[in-house]
Amino acid sequence: MKYKKANVNIAILKYWGKADTTINLPYQTSVSITADNFYTLTNVELDPNAKKDVVILDDKALTGIQYTRVAHHLDALRKHFGRGEYCIVTSYNHVFIKAGYASSASAFAALAAAYVDAIGAKVSKKELSRLARLGSGSATRSVHGGFVIWHRGKNHKTSFAEKLPIDWPEFRMLFTIIDPGIKTVSSRVGMQITVEKSKSYSIYVKESNDLVEPLIEALNAKDIEAVGHISERSAELMRNVMLEAGLEYHTPKTQKLIQTIRSIRSKHKIPVFYTFDAGPNLILFTLEQYVNDIIRLLPDVEIQVSGVGGGITNANS
Ligand code: 2P0
């Protein structure tokens, strides 16, 4: 079977809140790195006789909210292309599920690409990023490889992602597993609660958008210290508005690891920085030459190392 393969991405500069929930229009411009070892494979077949979509994930038919999210994305794609046929979606997730890392970025990027392929349409990567956004915000960025910027835009046309012209193959992400069993409020729900309840949300949006230019400068200069400090600031700004809205995604283990990372930095002069999403795990940013030392200094932490990955590709199985 022919599949589209999309990798997950981790934001250095975070997206956390929607100006328009129907088309996942964000309040902030965000910047991410596409990972090279966690991905989703998806095939879409049109079924002109079907009365509804069928979605098979990891050999099991999806139901409930997961099914509804896929069907809604397909509805949006059908509407966009003026088509009516329902689909059979077959998908495999090669994502670090055990750690609670979300797979919506790779899942909806692969779905958009596989649907476009199934109807035989030709679209640019920029357009594909818009179509992926209709399924999930973070999927907008997974269309591209490398370092990616998602311009927040003001409407469907102007909110898209593009690859930044940065070649930094030594960059590494260390995915930690801290509390695998913890269930959290989904990003989709969490960001809505934050927009509604956080007192300083509009200040956060401005502070976040003010980090775009310094981050691009730091990436262009391949300045790991500057990139790392901006990534921590972006994550902490996001956490601050989450906490104002009553959302705590960290556990004591998360906070303890943050302290350890800071002390590795100061004591051992190793450039290692953290970020986090809507969960208890940290993702560490560093360079290839420091990976072994960092792993040695964190003997009790389960870690998966990832390099910089590519954009959507074809795959067979
Ligand atoms: C990000 N996250 O920039 C941020 C940081 C989590 C924290 O994008 O509702 O699954 O589908 O647009 O994309 C995760 O949220 O939410 C996310 P929807 P999504 O990576």
Throw out a few tags for this protein:
2 domains; single chain; Alpha-Beta Plaits; four-stranded antiparallel β-sheet; Ribosomal Protein S5, domain 2; eight-stranded mixed β-sheet; 38% helix; alpha+beta; binds ligand 2P0; 317 residues
In short:
The protein is an alpha+beta fold and 317 residues long.
Give an overview of the whole structure.
It is built from ten helices and 14 strands. The protein has helices at 64-81, 104-118, 125-133, 139-142, 187-197, 201-209, 212-220, 224-244, 252-268, 291-297, and strands at 2-13, 18-20, 25-26, 30-47, 54-57, 60-61, 86-94, 147-150, 161-163, 171-177, 273-276, 282-287, 302-306, 313-316. The longest helix has 21 residues, at 224-244. It is of the alpha+beta class and 317 residues long. The chain is globular and about 65 Å long. The relative contact order is 0.19. It folds into two domains: 2-167, Ribosomal Protein S5, domain 2, CATH 3.30.230; 171-306, Alpha-Beta Plaits, CATH 3.30.70. Ligand 2P0 binds at residues 11, 14-16, 24, 30, 102, 104, 136-138, 187-188, 277-278.
